[in-house]
């Protein structure tokens, strides 16, 4: 069964450093997403991406964040200058793309980002 | 704006019994989807079940069923015949566009 994959599974970085989190969505899916979950808290939407551009973004997704689909398979989240509060589990998800509220999003296993 | 509320932070259930996890939602969108995800201790998010706002029947997927009461804006998850492997966090979520809004989750613990 196809699945979303994410690398690395755990990333440790120093405050102020740039990090890139990588995802390979399910191959025939059209929508891609990033979510984050701070330890012990709810999952929060960051951004959705469709047709090579951002479709929606939350208030969390400020200028420090960017997303890219550099080729036909990868989808990346870049954090330019990490802060301590960026420490969280970051989930990538993808969906087939029905745009009517029926679109099931399938999540990857997550990347745990620790900022020291 | 959408809002999802899960009022049960933690629940216990005896193995082989059924359990209901509560979820209420608020939205002004006429078309939306309701989802339940399971998050075991390993951290991944596993899709369980989906209910569309226009669906006439309650969704079922194996041991999971969704008790959808549109007028009350509730979408409770029912797990029948609980198993030890059902112990996990369960999140209710809503999609009214192309972003999911999650509730705070319910931690389910299945007792042997």
Written overview of the protein:
The complex is a heterodimer of chains A (116) and B (112). Chain A has no helices and 11 strands. In chain A, the strands form 2 sheets. In chain A, strands 2, 4, 5, 6, 9, 10 and 11 form a 7-stranded mixed β-sheet that branches. In chain A, strands 1-3-8-7 form a 4-stranded antiparallel β-sheet, with no helix packed on it. In chain A, strand 5 (43-50) and strand 6 form a beta hairpin. Chain A has strands at residues 5-7, 10-13, 19-24, 31-37, 43-50, 53-57, 65-68, 75-79, 88-95, 106-107, 111-115. With 116 residues, chain A is mainly beta. The model of chain A has no long low-confidence stretch (mean pLDDT 93). In chain B, 0% of the residues lie in helices and 53% in strands. Chain B contains no helices and 12 strands. In chain B, a hairpin with a 6-residue loop joins strand 5 (33-39) and strand 6 (46-52). The relative contact order of chain B is 0.34. Chain A binds chain B through residues 31, 33, 35, 41-45, 48, 50, 55-56, 58, 89, 91, 93, 95, 97, 99-110, 112, and chain B through 29, 31-33, 35, 37, 42-47, 50, 52-53, 91, 93, 95-105.
């Amino acid at each position: 069964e196809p699945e979303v994959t994410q690398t690395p599974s755990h990333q440790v970085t120093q405050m102020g450093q740039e990090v890139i989190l990588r995802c390979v969505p399910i191959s025939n899916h059209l929508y891609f997403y990033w979510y984050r979950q701070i330890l012990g808290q709810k999952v929060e939407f960051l951004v959705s991406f469709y047709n090579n551009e951002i479709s929606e973004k939350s208030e969390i997704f400020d200028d420090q964040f960017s997303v890219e689909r550099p080729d036909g398979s990868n989808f990346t989240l870049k954090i330019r200058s990490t802060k301590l509060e960026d420490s969280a589990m970051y989930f990538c998800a993808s969906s087939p793309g029905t745009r009517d509220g029926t679109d099931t999003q399938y999540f990857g296993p997550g990347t745990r980002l620790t900022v020291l | 704006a959408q809002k999802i509320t899960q009022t049960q932070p933690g629940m216990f259930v005896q193995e082989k019994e059924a359990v209901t996890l509560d979820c209420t939602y608020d939205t002004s969108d006429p078309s939306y989807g309701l989802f339940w995800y399971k998050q075991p201790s390993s951290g991944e998010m596993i899709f369980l079940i989906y209910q569309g706002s226009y669906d006439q029947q309650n969704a079922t997927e194996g041991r999971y069923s969704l008790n959808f009461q549109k007028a009350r804006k509730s979408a409770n998850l029912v797990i029948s015949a609980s198993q030890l492997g059902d112990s996990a966090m369960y999140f209710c979520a809503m999609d009214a566009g192309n972003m999911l809004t999650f509730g705070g989750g319910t931690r389910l613990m299945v007792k042997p």
